[in-house]
Amino acid sequence: MTASEPPPSDRTEPPASPPERPVPPEWTAAIERLMQVLDTLRGPGGCPWDAKQTVASLVPHLVEESHELADAAARGDRAGLREELGDLLMGVLMTARVAAEDDDGVDPGTVARAVTAKLIRRHPHVYGEVRVSDSGEVLRNWEDIKREERREEGKEDSVLGGVPASLPALTLARRVGDKAAAAGFDWPDLSGPVHKVEEELGELAAAAESGDRTAVEDELGDLLFAVVNVARKLGVDPETALRRTVARFRERFGYVERRLGERLRGASLEELEALWQEAKRTAAAAEPTGAEGRASDGGASQG
User: Fold this and answer.
1) Domain 24-121: what homologous superfamily?
2) Global pTM?
């Protein structure tokens, strides 16, 4: 492995910085050992699969590992969290290790130094003289600094610039809403997006009545975007909320499926509803005190 020299901009110390605690040596030793193993796998006499990987071939694995990490976090699975964080860390370091072979200044060292410099630059209230009153001001400063960086790099100068279109739709909607809100384009309180949901629901019903499929798709998209804005105002991540709901649905449906077996397809709606409510009560009884309310939503036809 070779290490490149940091560019001058990355070596510049901030004008002021708080006292920094030393990194536990066991952390740095563990990461160094991981990098040594990755280098061995990639190098001569290593693993044929690792040896043939490219940055492009590794990126889909990073996306998959990110989803697995999110799933473990949503479940509150601490053992799974450790495993999936490790898989993602390994994937990031291996991708940087493979990129280093092109000898164009992208390697684990330059990657780490660049993101460190970016964190310092975007936290002038910690590493500089800027004063902030709350986290909202921190986020506004972050976006202002990011926009200035994009202008300096000749990239799109837009409040909504830098949001990848390939993000999952709910996350994309939240990020776009966040950026628009940071620029002052937002409702003053929760009643605004709630009213918008009611308005869009009526427009969706009208479009469905008309039979215009394009209008239905447009209005459904508007409704979903309005719901995401409600989530944003409530400080709830819509992607996480929907994943939890789907997980609950799968758990309850599995209960009904196990109880009915092959009779599932022929069961009456009344029988399905009764078993669905039974599944909810069973899940509520197994949850810690205070969680019952979260398990009491919806019927078999509602989720």
Assistant:
1) MazG-like (1.10.287.1080)
2) 0.62
